[in-house]
Amino acid sequence: MKKNNIITLIIENLKTLVFALLIAILIRSLIIQPFYIPSSSMEPTLLIGDRIFVSKFSYGYSKHSFPFSPNFSKNRFFARLPSQGDLVVFKTPEDNRTDFIKRLIGLPGDEIQFINGDIFINGVKVSRQLTNIKIPIRCGDINLSTNTYIEKLPNGLSHFATYKKKGSLQNTKKFIVPADHYFLMGDNRDCSRDSRFSSIGFVKNLNLVGKAKIVFFSNDTKEGSLLKIWNLHNSFRIERTFKGLK
User: Is 195 known to be catalytic?
Assistant: First the structure.
């Protein structure tokens, strides 16, 4: 093969790679992005080892929609308001880099408070019903003794939430959500760093990344990594494949 032909082939292959990379970045930034769940803060809704798809267009686009959060604007484009109860991926206010996923509990202007272990939103207690679900709930490497409830938010959306049987959070101060901010909590209420803590606090609308839609793959990391192919039949959670989220 002549030298000119080799150079032409290399250039054409580089063009193809660059084009494919640009397409992948656009899909990841504008349409859908995969995320891995590394912690137990959203159990039982999301388990350690879940891999989820997140819709990037649900709330419109900001600088945090793109890799490395380029600081090109402080606005959100094609903005859509999130709903109470959404499973939201966001950049933590702590560093504006780390991705967290929590459930949206409080909208701008809402007043949130725990009183005797119950959540009150704008002075009204969130109703919850004890279930017979006995899903093992973790906090790091520790198994918690918990009760799992179905909670119903003021807009009618219901979801699972777990509380420790002993030592659960009882009382908090009143959290009044500022304009253009949201209050988010983990469904594993006693093992979640979220808006109740100063390190996270209220989350700006600008920091919203997207809405979790579906679990596309799940692997129980306690049973081994994906690299241990011989043990995949024990660690692969087939019942969670393509499981819709709410």
Answer: no
